[in-house]
Amino acid sequence: MSDRIVLDAHDLVVRYPGSPPVVAVDGVSLRISAGETVALVGESGSGKSSVARAVAGIDRPAEGEVRFDGGAVTALGIRRRARELTAIQMVFQDPSTSLNPRRRVGDQVSDGITAARARGLEGSRPEEWFERVGLDTAAVSRFPHQFSGGQKQRIAIARALAARPHLLVADEPISALDASTQTSVAALMRDLVSELGAGMLFISHDLAVVQRIADRTLVMYGGRVMESGDTAAIWAAPRHPYTRALLGAIPKPDGAGRVPVSPTAAERATWTDVPPVED
Amino acid sequence: MSDILTIDDLTVDIGRPLVKGVSLELHPGRIQGLAGESGSGKTLTSLAVLGLLPRNARTGGSIRLGDTEILGLRRRELNRIRGRRIAMVFQDPSSSLHPQLTVGHQLTDHIRTHLGLGRAAARDRAAELLERVNVPSASDALGRYPHQFSGGQRQRIAIAIALACDPDVLLADEPTTALDVTVQAGILQLVRDLATERNLAVLLVTHDLGVMSAVADDVAVMRDGRVVEAADRETLFASPQHEYTRGLLAALPGSRFEGGGA
């Protein structure tokens, strides 16, 4: 991991229209260095995906700023994306909707390679990326439906990495996969990203996977980051009551037959009153 | 202990052998866990019980519900058992519930088919069930659609549907994997309580040994189509015998075997 900061987002606020408007993200700041994997965890509705979309420039934040490689990230419009911003790549939850069903998978990975070349980087071949994500290189000429869910997600990862990103934003990239392949795909992403020297924002509700692969973790609740810090330190000694409740709800493989306690509505009501803790 | 569902030397072959002689017994009021990685055959084993294997699957061995052989039954006979005596809950409640039918419709449909209740009686029963699985304002919930509920509530609804006809056996395949951990805890407690209070025999398929440790009474570990180890929960977690089980446990933070083992 280097100290070069690839992503610096500060005081992000994301609102969705409605009456009253929904404040999905309420003042979130985060930094990611090259080679670093930062996890965003929290329950559904906590604002994780909204942060990811603002960071990648899919949605424009109502307030705050996203800086990537020192420049501002502009939101996607109808025009072609600024060339330097193709160094931000995303992997989405469901590979069966993120891959084009009518194009050969090798061609789709080539799109990533083209994006890298447009930024003046060396070319590569789809087969190399297939090999890196653990797929048979002969499969480049097949179509998405000829692969399993886990394999499709590996193709989506290959396509994103072929663009040689400086930042990979992955929003629940493993939750649509068969439960027992989730860990291996997450570990693969982490390894490849750090090999390329890129940063990764990894969003997941699977805390066991996050504990394994993330250098730092941000815990979100109600649109705010309640606790952030070194992953191992948070797991060893969570300080915010929400983090304690979240980690306390993970069942332990100790054979004791104890179901963890689910937090009550009364407990939930107190969490937002406790100020966030940072390392 | 009497057993209600007996799987004996089950084999499933889909082009190649995938389940290679699995034997398991389910007992009323007990949760039998089935662990293992992707491709170990644990889901195929539970699908075989429901007769939901692909058409080209060839099966061998025996699956008995009480004294009745159910492996290889014809669809018409299976339909009298599926949803009535053996029910199932899947990983993703948003794809197992019908998006365009109200919760009440989905809950009363098979109550009326299987139990022959009238519309009003079925509706009363449906409301009771929703209340039992802790879906808030149960009678209003009957008129709403799946998308109007959170993921955890949808899984509670799926469980209510599974329980609607008082089944003897509940098959649950990764029922909490798609949920937040805080929600998972509530669902696990519900499954545990229901097994005990309804004398339900549960087959819980999960890759998560934490979940297994929380609720299963007995645990079987599958690998490559075979059960490599089976024991009661305390024994399995305290002294795993098979190298593969020790490896699975060693990979987990918070287990006694962390960092050690295979």
UniProtKB/TrEMBL annotation, chain A:
CDD domains in the record: ABC_NikE_OppD_transporters
Top-level taxon of origin: Bacteria
ABC transporter domain residues: 7-247
Family of the protein in this entry: Belongs to the ABC transporter superfamily.
Alphabetized InterPro entries for the sequence: AAA+_ATPase (IPR003593), ABC_transp_ATP-bind (IPR050319), ABC_transporter-like_ATP-bd (IPR003439), ABC_transporter-like_CS (IPR017871), Oligopep_ABC_C (IPR013563), P-loop_NTPase (IPR027417)
Renumbered residue ranges of the record's region Disordered: 256-279
Organism placement in taxonomy: Bacteria, Bacillati, Actinomycetota, Actinomycetes, Micrococcales
Gene Ontology MF: a single term: ATP binding
SMART domains: AAA
Keywords from the named record: ATP-binding, Nucleotide-binding, Transport
Entry's Gene Ontology BP terms: peptide transport; transmembrane transport
PANTHER family with a match to the protein in the record: D,D-DIPEPTIDE TRANSPORT ATP-BINDING PROTEIN DDPF-RELATED, TRANSPORT ATP-BINDING PROTEIN
Protein name: ABC transporter ATP-binding protein
From TrEMBL, chain B:
Keyword Nucleotidyltransferase appears in the UniProt entry: no
Protein family according to the UniProt entry: Belongs to the ABC transporter superfamily.
Keywords: ATP-binding, Cell membrane, Membrane, Nucleotide-binding, Transport
Major localisation: membrane
Record domain ABC transporter: where: 4-249
InterPro entries: AAA+_ATPase, ABC_Ni/Peptide_Import, ABC_transporter-like_ATP-bd, ABC_transporter-like_CS, P-loop_NTPase
Keyword Repeat annotated: no
An example Gene Ontology molecular-function term: ATP binding
Record's protein name: ABC transporter ATP-binding protein
GO-annotated cellular components: plasma membrane
Membrane-topology descriptor: Peripheral membrane protein
Pfam (any one): ABC_tran
Cellular compartments annotated: Cell membrane
Native source species: Labedella populi
